[in-house]
Structures are given as structure tokens and as C-alpha cells.
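User: For a teaching handout, I'd like to show students what a predicted protein-ligand complex looks like in C-alpha cell form. I'll give you the sequence and the SMILES for zinc ion. Please answer with just the structure.
Assistant: Understood, here is the input followed by the structure.
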Amino acid sequence: MTGHWLGEPAQWPQHLSLVLQHALDHLPREACGYVVGPSLPPLFVPLRNSAVAPERSFAVADVVALRELDRRCAAGEPVVFYHSHPQGAASFSDQDRARWTTDHGPTWRLDHLVMGCTARAVTEMALLRWAADQREYVVHARLPSLLASTGLAPGAHL
Ligand SMILES: [Zn+2]
């Protein structure tokens, strides 16, 4: 598989602060969206969470937005899809694993940023990247390096 990943988190601090802000604004509900980069200004695409129980999961009903994401991934644009886990950890849930992984590889060629949160703050972030040899997403980078690159303290209330 050719790599079209976004690169190291330190290269996209502007994206990270927008993502963090989106997650904070939506607590205690899950927030989701994606970023494309690195580029200035950052291309930041927050998505609407249409899940029936947005405190526990997310769903994207916006077909146009999904088609656009699909097009970007197919075109080899570097994309990171992000979502938050209110009252949860910065790691893939079983549901995430099922959603983003197929028998043939990742559902889409993109990195994932998962945010672990309390009821009111984002407390950890992890960037997951597809590991072809392990045939699954593995943690590529973790807090504090991710939050440090945003200039925001862990657990920041904005
Ligand atoms: Zn999740």
C-alpha cells in the first residue's frame, strides 16, 4: 500500500486545535470530522453527528460529505478522521475496529485521531495509523506530544 498519510502531528498544530475545540464544544456528545493537510489554512471539515445516542457513538448521515471524504481518500489526499469518546479512552473501540477495518485492509486510506474525554474535557489523544504487517490500526502517537503541539494543556476547558 502506498502511503498517503498526513505525516507527523507536529506538522499540523492548527488542525489539532480546531479538532480539539470541536470535541470540547460537543461534550458530552461525540464529535467527528476530518482534516486534510498539512496545508495553510488548514482544511478542517467538522461533520454532524446524526447518531440516535450521540453520547455513545457517532454516525454521519451527510451523504455528500461522505462522498467528498471518499473522493479525497481515493485521490490520495492525506486525511485524518477524528472522533471523540466522551467518558472514554483514546483508543479504538470494538465498534471502531469493525467500522474502519475490512478483511482487505482499512475501509478508507486515512489516519484516525481518537480523543478520550471526561464529561467536560479532552484528556488524551491518540493518532492511529494502519499497520500493514499487523493488518490493523495501531497507535502511532499519543498525548502529551499531540496536545503539546496545539499549545493547549491536557484537560483544557475552552
Ligand atoms: Zn470510537
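For the handout, you might add this sentence: Residues 83, 85, 93, 96, 114 surround zinc ion (CB under 6 Å).
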